[in-house]
Structures are given as C-alpha cells and as structure tokens.
Amino acid sequence: MTITASPTPAALVLEVAGDLDHTNAQRLRRAAREAALPAGRLLAVDLGKLSFCDSSGITALIAVRNHVVSVDARLVLVAVSVNMRRLLNMTGLDQVFDIRDAA
Q: Which family does the similarity line name (predicted)?
C-alpha cells in the first residue's frame, strides 16, 4: 500500500493505493495523525486506487475519522469504489462517513 499526501487549497488529500489490510492499516492511522490538521481543515481520503480493504482497513478508517473529529477538522472519503461503498453501506458506516465522488 502507498499513501501520498497532497495539500490543496481546499483540503489535505491522502491518496491510498493498493491493499489496506492488517499488514499496513497502522500506516494510514499514522499518516492521519502526522497530517497536523488545524481546526476546520478538510482531510480527503482518496480511495480511488484502493484495490482491497479488510476489517483492519475499515477499523483504520474509523480511527482516522475519530482523530479528525478530535482535532475539530473534517473528513471526506472520495473516489470510493462500488464494492467499498457496498461494504460501508452493509456496516452502516455510510451513515458515519461523508462519501463524495471528488474532494
């Protein structure tokens, strides 16, 4: 898995590519913590190049959300695949995450 951080005027974008699973989910948590988000800032997690996500990956996304909320910033998941949307829907997490086509 690779995580690429790209600041934009609208948000800090973390692009996640590859497999988000038990072997590397902690890297996503760390990337979010190291983002140093000021209050009100938007963190966009781009999942457009995500090829697989297991329960550890879902847990990492929840941890990222909890961190973002704790620093009074905002989170959006973008470019979420149909399969990932279905997983988020089945778990009720589509009601927890702001999911958009683009940041």
A: Belongs to the anti-sigma-factor antagonist family.
User: What's CA 82's distance to the chain center, in Å?
Assistant: 16
Chain segment 1-47, per-residue pLDDT in tens: 999 999 999 899 999 999 999 999 999 999 999 988 899 999 999 99
* Spatial contact of 5 and 14, defined as CB atoms under 8 Å apart: yes
Distance of CA 20 to the CA centre of its chain: 11
Domain ranges of the chain: 2-100
Sign of CA dihedral 25, 30, 31, 33: positive
- Measured in degrees and rounded to the nearest 5, phi and psi for residue 83 equal -65, -40
The pTM score is: 0.94
The topology under which CATH files domain 2-100 is: Transcription Regulator spoIIAA (3.30.750)
